[in-house]
Each structure stands twice: as structure tokens, then as C-alpha cells.
UniProtKB/TrEMBL annotation:
Taxonomy, superkingdom: Bacteria
Family annotation (InterPro entries): CRISPR-assoc_prot_NE0113, SSO2081-like_dom
Pfam families (alphabetical): Cas_NE0113
NCBIfam families per the UniProt record, alphabetical: cas_NE0113 (TIGR02584)
The protein's name: CRISPR-associated protein, Csx6 family
Domain CRISPR system ring nuclease SSO2081-like: start-end pairs: 26-241
Amino acid sequence: MNATEATPTQPETYPRRILLAVTGLTPQVVTETLYYLARLRAVPYIPTEVHLLTTGEGASRAELTLLDADKGYFHRFCDDYGLTGQIHFGREHIHVITDGDNRPLPDISTEEDSHGAGDFIANRIRQMAEFADSSLHVSIAGGRKTMGFYAGYALSLFGRPQDRLSHVIVSDPFESTQEFYYPPPKPRVIFTRDQRPVRTDEARIMLAEIPFVRLRDGVPKMLRQGRASFGEVVEATQRNLLPTLVTLLPVRCSVRVGEVEVRLEPRQFAFYGWLAERQAAGEPPLRAVEADAGAFLDIYSRVLRALGRDEFAIDDVLDRFEGRTRLDRKFIHETCSRINGKLEDALGPLARQVHGILATGERGESEYALAVPMDRINWEE
């Protein structure tokens, strides 16, 4: 299947399809979820690979019950439904949650364990959501509630339009029956916890897709690509989605948004500052065809002096604009684009709309203004 055929509304069209299950002491949720996706979903979603996020005890149970060469229920499921060799799932796909010191967690029983689990789960989901040409299906039916919460929240932070979140539901008494992993093609009799015999074809498996808000565009690029704690990602995303004070720092040639400082080149800082001063003076958005070179050069020279440049160096820079009464459109467009690019790299894709320079109007008649309200801009001399 070509990547060009994939569409976010149809996750099954992606060439790489990942089922990521959060499990604890009930590895049955893996085969139950696979059964629904492969057999009951209106359009089958056959994962190309399965990954588990679990504790040390959960990993041991999953290896023994799902992956045993003779009796593993994952292998049985694939044999029963003609999927052998189509779904990659081995011991290397079982990821044991570790604490801050990279030690496997046997269970999540303390606040420190919980924080470590949150960081681990968030980073695994972040990594999988970066795989090209893939869709990610996250199941939160197993494991402690804390694990499911972190997985759902992490998918909200990093998930793409083609990614899904779900919870598999199994009818009573099969949900609490240790022998039940999925309904086999040939029904068989198993025994419930109270030793009551039941037929497997009486089981009903449902899958609830859980809607979630996708906040990925609010996560800074550096946090999507590098390791960060769960708390750091949440804090950065929240900062980018809320109005934040923007401070202009001439002596550092940088713009500080909240606690994040973004370095700009002198002419970029001067242009951003020029738009801020125009806005403070109540002037309308800057029309590219009327961009006064003299007004821009005035603030440009002030920025260079704040940086400690001598007058000869300043004159040399300003001489490059000699004879111009208007800034050309190419200069304006490139300067705005580079400023917005630096803001997005540091703050996330939403930075342009929240803290950057907005361009409106038809091509050739563009107008430029800061997205930041004037009461949220501060100059620090």
C-alpha cells in the first residue's frame, strides 16, 4: 500500500499499523482487542505490529500466556484466523515501565512510581507517533487506571489525526474468566471463576473508541523530538495555548515568551519590535507596499546600539539600505518567515498564530501585524 493512499479518517490505509496496549495483570486485553479490530470492525484494522507497555509482573504474564511457542494465545489467535506472519509481536515488543533511574517497575504503588510511569509512557507514545506512514491505535483496557490515564493524555499531546484511542469491553462472565482470551472459530467450553461452564461463542466483545482532543500542534518541536518529562510537555503545551506575556530584550536580541527565550538576528528583532511599536501607537497593520524604510532603520540602529555595536559598524549595516524609501516585499516576507520559524521551533506549530507575525490580504497587498495583543507585550531595556 502506497503512503499516498493513506488517509487519516481511515487508519487501516496506513502501511504501518501499530497496536499499543497498556496492560497489567490481564494480558487477555491484547487478543480481545485484536479480535475486535480484525474480526468485528466494519473495516478490519490488522496491525502490522503489537507493542505492550506494562510492569515487570505484567511482562512475565504476557510472555507466558501470549507468546509461549506451544500454548501462547497470540499465536493461537493468528493461527485460528489466518494471520500468522502478518502481525509482528515478540518479546522485544514488550516494554517494561521503568522509573527515573531506568529500573523496571514491578508495580506502580508510590507517587514516585507514578511519575516515572508517566514519563515512560509519554515518551514511548511520543516516539511511536513520530513514525512516518503509520497509524497508532492505543488500547487502555488493561493495567492500572494511572497507566491508562497517562496513555490517553500522552496520545492527546502527541497523537495525529489518524491515531485512535480505545477500550475493549467483554461481556460477563468472560471478562473475569482467566481462560478466556478471544472467541475461537470452533467454540469450546471453559470454566468461569466460580467453576461454572460456559461456551466461548456466548461471549460478546465490543470496542469503545474514545474521542480525545489533539494538542500536538501546541507541543514545541524540540519536545516532540527529544526526551522530556511528562510534566515538562504538559507545561509547555499549556503555555502555548494560553495568552502569555511576551518580553522584548534588545540587549539580548531575543523575545521571551513566558519562560522561553527565543534568539533572533538583529534585523529580525528590529522588525518584530517595529511591529510592536506600531501596534502600541495604534497604527494599522503594516502594508508591504507602504513599509517605510526610514522608520524600520531607526529601530534597527537602536537595536544595534543596545547590542554594543560601534557607530562605524552601525553605519555599515545601514548603508546597505541606502537610497531606499520603502522596504521591498521579499525582505519583509523572508524576515517574517524566519521569525515565525524560530518561534515555532522553540514553542510549537501554534506559535505563529499566538506569538508570531500574521499576514493578511491578497498576494502583493499583504498586511503584517503581531498576533500578540498589545497589553501582553513588554519592552525590557
